[in-house]
Design a protein that fits this description.
The protein is α/β, with parallel strands linked by helices and about 250 residues long.
Length: about 250
């Protein structure tokens, strides 16, 4: 999921070349400490949402379930989406779960777990508005900075991407008439349409992608443990319970 803005380009380029003296904690070190530090955005409903001091959402509940299986307490950290992977490189937390689509560029900087869900970038507009990739030609499309949604929108001919720091800001731009369409996660789009009660329509899914947790490059022991715990949650019913709570379906990759 989730680079018109030059600063965004520089930010991710810096991520790829960043050298940090902070080393990632291994799985044994985390287990010995009794606490795991997890980062997310907190502004991407229904996956991760910060309301006051309360953090909730599908990814938050899933990560908490994995930590419970590991017999660990959780220390949550929230940060802007386009800085999360940089913070990971700097050793500020153990792993990130924030709807990052697996891309070759990101995979140069971090190591991804097995996907914890599959989704895609979808067009949402007001009733009668654009619904297809062709319809977006010549239109303003609201999209979040640093995301795969922005990358893919920029590939479409004639589209003017209107970039926002948060996905919720991009949604507001659509509702306020400052954009002709919004492109974002298909499940987030369904939630948005439901909340607006007949004011919005869902268009085509422009592309599909696999979403995964990220650990610092080379942290193989933690990556192995996360993959094992995710598989365990998917086999013991914990994953299905959380997924059904938020989406009324199992959203794991088929």
């Amino acid at each position: 999921m989730k680079f018109v803005r030059p600063s965004a380009l520089l930010t991710f380029a810096a991520l790829l070349t960043l050298t940090s003296t902070a080393s990632a904690r291994t799985w044994d070190e985390i287990k010995k400490s009794g606490t795991i530090k997890i980062a997310t955005e907190g502004a991407f409903p229904p996956f991760n949402v910060l309301n006051g001091k309360k953090l909730s959402g599908f990814e938050v509940d899933l990560a908490n379930a994995l930590a419970k299986q590991m017999n660990l307490k959780v220390n949550w950290v929230t940060a802007p989406f386009d800085g999360l992977l940089i913070g990971l490189q700097q050793g500020r937390y153990d792993f990130v779960i924030a709807s990052h689509g697996i891309t070759p560029e990101r995979a140069k900087a971090v190591d991804f777990s097995h996907p914890h869900y599959c989704t895609g970038g979808t067009v949402v507009s007001k009733m009668g508005g654009p619904k297809t990739a062709d319809d977006l030609n010549g239109k303003k499309v609201a999209v979040q900075v640093g995301t795969t949604y922005l990358e893919n929108v920029q590939k479409l001919p004639g589209v003017k991407a209107v970039v926002f720091p948060k996905d919720t800001d991009a949604q507001t731009a659509l509702m306020m008439g400052r954009a002709d369409a919004w492109v974002g996660d298909k499940f987030t789009g369904l939630d948005l349409i439901k909340a607006q009660k007949g004011k919005l329509q869902q268009g085509d899914m422009l592309y599909s992608e696999k979403i995964a947790m990220a650990v610092k490059k080379g942290n193989s022991s933690l990556l192995k443990e996360l993959n094992a715990e995710l598989a365990k949650a998917q086999s013991n019913g914990a994953y299905a319970k959380i997924s059904n709570q938020y989406f009324k379906q199992d959203i794991r990759c088929k």
